[in-house]
Amino acid sequence: MLTTARRVLTAAVFEQRNDVANDVEATALERLLNIIIIIKCFWSDAFPTKNRHKTLRDKITTRMGAIITKRRKRLLVLVGAIFGLYYYTSENFERRNAAAPVHQQHHRRRGENHHQLRGGNFAHFFGRSNSNLSFREKQLTHLLGVENEWQPGFSFVGTGNAEERGRFLNMSKDDGDGTYDGIGIGLGGETNAGAHNPAHENSDKTFGVKSIGVFHVFRKPPWGGGNQFLMALVKEFRRRKIKVVENAIVPGVKIYMANAVTFKVDPFREAFLKSGKKLKLVHRLDGPYYSARYNKDPRKEANLPYRAREDDRVYWINNEFACASIFQSKWSYDMNKMLGYDPKGYLQIVNNAVDDTIFHNRGRQPFSRLRKTKIMASSWSSGERKGFKTFKWLDDNLDFTKYEFFFSGNVPDGMEFKNIKTLPPVTSEKLAPMLREHDIFLAASYLEPCSNALVEALASGMPTVYQSGSGHAELVKAGGRSYRRPEEIPAMLDEVVLRFEEYQNNIRVTTVSEAADGYLQVYAACLS
After folding, report:
1. 146-168+199-352: what fold?
2. Is the pLDDT of residue 295 over 50?
């Protein structure tokens, strides 16, 4: 625009000079008129008229308004979708479904219409129930999508008839309050589980298994009990010269083990299908999440339609891939069965074990009734199920002229003790000597499938007073006493002190060598 004006101005100036040269008598009025024409041409070209400027501005305003309106609509749709997802996956939605008429209620059992049961994954990442998990752990457990729905899987292999399978399920020793311990503990502390297992020498057997894959994100201790057990198990496998591959699908490795839902399903499914379904998965199960995460007791609430989404995921995976299912305790198996879940493949129950080079009873401090009896408890988790209300009651009511109480682990925010001494979580190497310096272990957690903290204490030679109604009874056997209410604990402690040597001699735990034998036998059965 400016270039055009300059050209016009230059031409006019040259023309004016020629006119002056050719016609010296040109009047000043004519020269002024030429200059005005040149200025007008330049001005109109450089600056559009008022009407033209206004039209362009109106166009810009209209266009921006349309863009803003469209973005507002998209934002409203997004906010509505987020709210819908949150509401659909919230406890209120589940409670509303639970309040529906009986004929509209759908029990969340394997093989039913899971599209009516699944509540989406928004709450999995942002809800309160998983607030204790890191984002990586949420990713590892976020396995559901349309492509991950339940599919018909393996038929039951091995001991498959109802009579034989019934031996895994104790259909309750109800003691009058709607609870039982799984293997049944009488008031005197005796067990009906039979004689203790004989002593087990370290084994070097591989049962023909040369390599296995393990799906688990190993954490540096201190960490949870499952992490501790799998570290000890993998260490034992490698001691037996078995190749162990972690979190990868490798050519030549035909059998893999995974914990519940904490592995990536899609890559395994892809490799599984490419292999012609020749890859084998041994599914290590515990829980149920219904109890472990949501504090619900299947013995009292299994008739309700609510089921944990995590448990549904576990059994969709189990039915699609599993050639065998290993439970950590019979109590855990019982609770899963009560919720209507049906594990596939070979069934085996193998209690957790600990690294016996760390947790052992060698060099224990001798017990004496001439000093205060030393009680200890430990827990990595600070969740409600770990018995902190019981600890608080003991802090206010236990006779601390007779007892000392020490707790190692995470404590809920805001909880303080007057008499109980606390220490943050420590590594296994630091925890083991502390256990050997104390006398009695208190297992106050409830709805617990197989407490690794309890196994560590028993392996260290500590008689135990434990909360009844979970997997503790299978581990303690005749090595301690159970209680139902905190008020019973002081009497149970006095009883264990009186018969300390007897209870200590009755302790019998599963060794890591025994656990490895149990797992390897299952692997061999799957590969045969």
Report:
1. Rossmann fold (3.40.50)
2. yes
